[in-house]
Structure formats: C-alpha cells, structure tokens
Amino acid sequence: MGEVDVLLKRVLDLTDAQNRWRQLETINLIASENVMSPLALKVYLSDFMYRYAEGKPFKRYYQGTKYIDELEVLTAKLIGEMLGTDLVETRPISGTIANASVFRVLADPGDKAVIAPVQAGAHVSHTKFGTLGALGIEQVEMPYDAENMNVDVDGAVKLIEKVKPKFAVLGGSVYLFPHPVREIADAVHAVNGKLVYDAAHVFGLIVGGAWHNPLKLGADAMTASTHKTFPGPQGGIVAFTDEKLYKKVSKTIFPWFLSNHHLHRIPALAVTTLEMKVYGKEYASNVVANARKLAECLVEEGLDVVGEHLGYTRSHQVLVDVRKNGGGAKAAKLLEDANIILNKNLLPWDPPSAVKDPSGLRIGTQEVTRWGMGRSEMCEIAKFIADVLVRKKDPGIVKKNVIEFRKNYNKVNYALEADVATLLDLSR
C-alpha cells in the first residue's frame, strides 16, 4: 500500500469514527450544536456546494445562479414570516460574520458600543477581544445584576444616557434568562443609537415561541446562528425592523466580509425552516422543559446547578458549578471519557484568567431533544453525569452504559420525512 493509500485510509477511518462516535455513541450536550434532519442533509450535499453566487439574488456577478437566486429569496421569505419581518439576510456564513456586518455599518473605529456584561452572556464577538475590537469599536460593558443573573437595567440605562453609544448589544452565548430588550431599546433609541440582539443560541426558541422575539420588543437587528437551537446547517442570518439598516448591511456583507456564501447551506436552511414551521413550537417547548428537568435532576443527584432561586433556566442551557467536583476542565474531560460531551465554562464569579480551568460546565438540551429524549431521559443523563462527578465511578464503565443508552435514540425527531425528497423531485 502506497503512502497516499495509507493516508487516505486514515482520513476515511477518522471520518467514520467521528460519525459513529458522535452520532450513535455519545450524549451530546454542547449548547451550540445540533443535528440536521436526513432531508436537510440530503439537500445540503448538492451541486450548490461547488458553486459561486457573489452579490444579491438576481443581481449576481456570476452566471449560472438562477436556482440559488430563487432558493435564497424563498428561504429569506420563510424565515421572515416566522419572525414577523420581510427584511432577512441569509448570506452570513456564521453568527460572528452576521455580527461583524451589522457592527461595521453602525459604528466607525473609535466609536462606542455598549454590550451586555460578560457575566450575563456576551459572546466574544461583542468584545474588544473579538469582532468589536477588530473593527476598532470601543467596548463599554453594562453593569451586572448578580441576584437576577442579568443586565442591571437601571445601571445600563444610566450608562447609555452617559456614553451615548452608536449601538448596544444584547443576547449572547451563555445566558439562562431573557435580557431586558424593551428597556435597553428605549434607552439606546433615546440617544439615537440602535439595538442589536445576538440570538445565535436562542433562534430556534424564538421561532418556536419559547423565547421572546427581540424584533417585536424594539431591536433594530437580530443576528443569529442557524445550527444551535435552530437545527439547520452551520451559518448565520440577520433579520431587521429597520429597512435602511437592512440595505446598508446587505451592501456590507459582500464584499466586506465574504465573497461566496456557501450556497449549499441555503436549501438545507429552507428545509429546516419548514421543519420548524411544522414542529417548532413543540420542539422549542420540549427543549426548554428538558433543560429545567435536567437541572432539577442534577440537583437531586448532588450537583450544584446555578440559578436555583430563579428556576434554573428559561433557555436550553444549564450551568453547573463543579468547583467541588474538580473544576470545569477536569470535569469536562472526565465526562468526555464517559462519552458525555459538554464544555467547561466561566461562571459569573470567575475572573477572565480562569478561562482554562473555570468553575463551571455549560450544558444544552437542544440536540438530545431532537434525538427524541424527554423528561425521564434527562434524569437518566443526570445520573450518568453524577456517576462520574459525584460517585467517582470509572468513566470507562459509565461510557459502556451511555453507549447502550444511546441505542434507543438514533432517529432525528421534529423533522420532515426523508422520502418527501422523492415527492419534491429533490433526489435528482
């Protein structure tokens, strides 16, 4: 066997191992991931993945785009109907690119932006360490209300009145409770600024009616990822209530932040949107209910879940304080050894320097819900976690139990049937 054959076999073996391990043998609790349906995957693996379509639909710089033009317009229309707007951009290839496109339009280098406090979930792209810093926009952080684990509304309003930022940002990556959209929107609009809501994590909950729609509470733009609680292909969107802002951002996405926008995402995004149109309310409701149940069961198993006095969570996320269980880094690694996949995470009291070994774990219930798991399964998952972290069982033994458990959950739920592809003639 030649060198190329050996390397090719290694590539195929690693890919096969990943598919088998993550899809069939693990309990995936990463809060920023999900799985697409077989039908969405079918249209994702299409000729579109080889093609370019720079520019806007029907105004491209390339020929050969007549089908993606129609699909892109249709997908934006479907998403807009679910959000109550006809101003939707589907071209960003990630939530961070979506943020960057909006931030670039709203402020120039040296201008100020007020963001949610990191303790209340701000994503790195909102900060001086990420996209905001790369654009030269000054970060000003709102005060934190530790009791309510949220933005300090009165303090934030006073800060906005004083700073007069070009825009404010709410939403983020680690937050259990809805941010105060209306209050911050009113404050920032009073100083001629705009409000951007980063719905990357809660987009699926919004369209499913389990989380407030920020566009109806005063947000001028809502950015989102399409692959977290919204179970579609990796990518991003921006939805607007401000038509002028929509037009400016559309002219900025291309050519400022991308050339081609990975066209194969679009039909998969359309299929997922239709799935959410049919099943979204049931799915989102179960995701949130599962998160609350998981939190309760983890407490019963002897773990310290953050936010008990507030009901633990209203999103898909659960935060666990594992300082007494060895810390976040050790706990996450032990659980991975047991085929339970989640991530270590800073908790509100952690200093930034603790990022490599923070106090907590972040858990999300959106993917296990899509695999068909419900309230009783959340208690089984809590038991597996406690077996490792509380009862100090050998992760290898727990791993065998997890693999056996997963055998009962190998079908993607809340999904349109794959044989619809034949009816729609999508199989050609």
Number of domains: 2
State the low-pLDDT regions, or none.
419-428
- Care to count the β-strands? 17
- Ends distance: 36 Å
What is the global morphology?
A: globular
Q: If helices are DSSP runs of H or I spanning 4 or more residues, what is the number of helices?
A: 15
Q: Strand order, biggest sheet?
A: 4-12-11-10-9-5-6
For the sheet with most strands, the description reads: 7 strands, mixed
For the record, what CATH class of the largest domain applies? Alpha Beta
Secondary-structure-derived class: alpha/beta
The CATH architecture term of the largest domain is: 3-Layer(aba) Sandwich
Helix content: 40-55%
Instruction: Characterize the quaternary organization of these chains.
Output: single chain
Could you tell me the mean pLDDT?
95
CATH superfamily of the largest domain: Type I PLP-dependent aspartate aminotransferase-like (Major domain)
Radius of gyration: 22 Å
CATH topology descriptor of the largest domain: Aspartate Aminotransferase, domain 2
